[in-house]
Amino acid sequence: MSNSPQNDVPITKVVLLLFAGLLTFGFAPIMVRFATDVEPLALAAMRTGFSALLLLPFWLPKRMSLQKLKGLGVKNYLLVAAGISLGLHFTLWIASLHYTSVASASVLVTIHPVMLIVAESVFFKSKFRPIVWLGVVIAFSGSVLLGLADDTQMNQFPQAVLGNTLAFSSAVIFVVYFMLGRKIRQHTEWIDYVFYVYTYAAITCVILTVLWVGGIPAITTISILVGLGLAIGPTILGHGAMNYAVKYISPTLLSTLVLSEAVVAAIAAFFIFGEVPSGFSIVAMLIIVFGVTLTWMKRMSRPT
Question: Cβ-count burial of 101 within 10 angstroms (0-12 exposed, 13-18 middle, 19+ buried)?
Answer without folding.
Answer: buried
